[in-house]
């Protein structure tokens, strides 16, 4: 698998760093990480950035993860880019809503590096 | 462990949630910090707790989940989460505490199967200081678990109506 460019969307900077570290621990080679603190910031990032995968929290201020995912079909740089939700919201309803909105995967916090590998590698493999 | 009960607002039922809260916190610390939390028999002195992270619950269950500790313990949590030294981690302490509280609240909620999709979490709030008290609800019950985190004291609690 080639090196990937990743967009991590989470209102916690600590969690963004942990997600990046977990990706590296999972053996995913990262070329560049873009970060955003909410869905609205992520849409701004995607005006210029082309990424291979988006990892997105759900509960965020300004624009939450579900609304962000719903808006992605209208974003040129997001076409064909898979989204994996990484969130504390673990109910079946949240999973169904996220997948219905267009997410390709769903990872619950707290998570291990092995779970990151298990949930994200197949999504990246399917894209490439 | 999963708890299901259609009557979420009885004090008797809430009393059974202490082990769920305990497990929810322990899982978060073991998974994200690589540390086991031991249960402490005695609550710590209030003076020792100068950081409080809070996450609100709304919907089928209303209330507030809190994680309280000293700022030194908060810095050590951030250090463990980010794998950086404790001094550098102090700058991340607020964010780390908020995220830990968020994960404890989410993990707790996910273990109460009767809540299903009907309970939402707020974004976290973290406050610090040496002389304050938190009162979120006029008539409420507090479930509290006292932990030892590498010799530091941590209090995890949920305040709910009833």
H/E topology pattern of chain B:
HHEEEHHHEEEE
Mean pLDDT of chain A: 93
Strand content of chain A: 15-25%
Number of strands of chain A: 5
Multimeric state: heterodimer
Report the sheet with the most strands of chain A, covering strand number, pairing sense and barrel closure: 5 strands, parallel
Instruction: Tell me how many strands of chain B there are.
Output: 7
Counted by DSSP, the helix tally of chain B is 5
Which protein chains are joined by the largest interface, and how many residues does each one contribute?
A-B, 24 and 26 residues
User: What is the percent of helical residues of chain A?
Assistant: 40-55%
Strand order, main sheet of chain A: write it out: 2-1-3-4-5
Structural class label of chain A: alpha/beta
Shape of chain B: globular
Distance between the termini of chain B: 24 Å
Order of helices and strands of chain A: EHEHEHEHEH
Query: Whole-number radius of gyration of chain B?
Result: 15 Å
TL;DR?
In chain A, 43% of the residues lie in helices and 20% in strands. By secondary structure, chain A is an alpha/beta fold. In chain A, strands 2-1-3-4-5 form a five-stranded parallel sheet, with helices on both faces.
């Amino acid at each position: 698998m080639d090196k990937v460019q990743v967009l991590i969307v989470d209102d916690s900077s600590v969690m963004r760093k942990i997600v990046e570290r977990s990706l590296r621990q999972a053996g995913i080679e990262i070329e560049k990480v873009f970060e955003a603190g909410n869905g609205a910031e992520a849409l701004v990032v995607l005006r210029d950035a082309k990424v291979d995968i988006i990892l997105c929290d759900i509960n965020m201020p300004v624009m939450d993860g579900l609304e962000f995912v719903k808006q992605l079909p209208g974003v040129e740089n997001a076409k064909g880019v898979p989204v994996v939700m990484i969130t504390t919201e673990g109910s079946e309803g949240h999973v169904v809503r996220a997948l219905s909105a267009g997410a390709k995967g769903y990872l619950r916090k707290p998570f291990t590096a092995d779970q990151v590998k298990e949930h994200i590698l197949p999504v990246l493999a399917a894209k490439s | 462990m999963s708890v299901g009960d259609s009557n979420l607002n009885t004090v008797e039922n809430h009393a059974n949630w202490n082990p769920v809260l305990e497990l929810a916190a322990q899982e978060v610390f073991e998974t994200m910090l690589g540390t086991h939390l031991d249960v402490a028999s005695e609550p710590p002195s209030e003076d020792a707790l100068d950081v409080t992270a809070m996450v609100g619950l709304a919907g089928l269950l209303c209330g507030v989940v809190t994680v309280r500790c000293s700022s030194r313990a908060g810095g050590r949590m951030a250090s463990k989460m980010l794998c950086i030294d404790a001094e550098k981690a102090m700058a991340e302490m607020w964010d780390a505490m908020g995220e830990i509280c968020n994960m404890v609240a989410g993990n707790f909620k996910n273990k109460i199967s009767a809540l299903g999709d009907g309970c939402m979490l707020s974004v976290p709030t973290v406050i610090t200081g040496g002389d304050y008290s938190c009162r979120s609800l006029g008539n409420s019950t507090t479930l509290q678990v006292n932990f030892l985190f590498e010799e530091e004291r941590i209090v995890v609690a949920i305040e709910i109506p009833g």
